[in-house]
Amino acid sequence: MSIGAQRVMTLRTKKSKRTSGVDNPNTSRQTQRIPMPHNSVFVLGPETNMQWLHGVRADKRPIQQKSEEERSFGGERISLTFRQIGTFTDRNNRKIWGQGARKKTKSTAGWVRAGDSAEMEAMVIAFGKENHQSEFDWQAEYGKGFDVINLITSKKSKLVLCRDKVANLRVQLSLLEKKISYDIEEKSEEPEKSDERRNPRHWSRAWSHGLSNIEKPIFKDTDEEASETEGDLAILFYLERSYPYETSRELGPEDVNRSSTQKLSRAAQSNELLFAWQNLPSQSRDSRSRSSASPDRPTSSHGMGIADMEKDLTMWEGYAKESERFITGDDWTLIDCAFWPVLNEIVHHWTGFKVQRYPELSAYHERVLNRESVQKLLEEEE
Question: What confidence score (pLDDT) does residue 182 get?
Fold first, then answer.
């Protein structure tokens, strides 16, 4: 709809694949110019849109050369465009469904793939083809759907890192695997810890539950509630609930319960392994270890040592043996994000880790080490 001064709608046929690049006067592109006076409407049907480009170009002619209709309303114009929308998101832009999405109905809506640069690029390429090819195959380019909604994500999540490299790696690995864009935010100065938090017995009790530690990363989401989550595993479970992996979305109720129980159990076990690693005698660890015990890490009064490490690693060796690719099966899960950073520390900094003794864990470690997300994070650390 055009309101105000008259403008000209210009239509031009798109290039044909058969004639693109061919200099032949018989295959020249056609042009039509349609005046759009005040209060006029131009209706563009799907067939015309497929064959023709359209637009209103800026009129840079001197005012003396313009008609009375073109000079009316002080030469100003308002354009209103009405489109039939076939793709929808929920109020928080978390779920997406419809004609242009992967899932076509609200009941089966998928999750928006925030920051998925590969899918954004594929969608932009499809847009370009549609705008320039008269033989555009809609089903081939758009049929499978896209679950991204912004070509440029204007608002990113924030991640506040801590001094615990394992905790940081757990969270960053999960964010990259879920293709969630984020910025690193500087950590504000903390007030002095209370006497209770300085008490090693307090640290040991908190850590023994396997779900938190004293030095915590903080994740600040972009949702409507501006959710803020503290602690590496707490963040991993928040991300799993808010941005589940594709395989998790397709599980039935019974499988969901079974999977949740396994995630809780093995996440706690990954922290027990980390706890054992933190409490190894310093002479058993490489001096370059990035995860040595510190006043911000809980210490144990129970004399945990090498025997505990070996027992835990033997258990994880069994898990790896039962699985094909990752620690719980063929698919990457929250447990890989929780466990692999701990294993990586041990592989690189414990003199007692031998390939001959832990062949399955060694193979698993190498497979994950070659993942794009891991390579990116390790490069950033260097």
Answer: 87
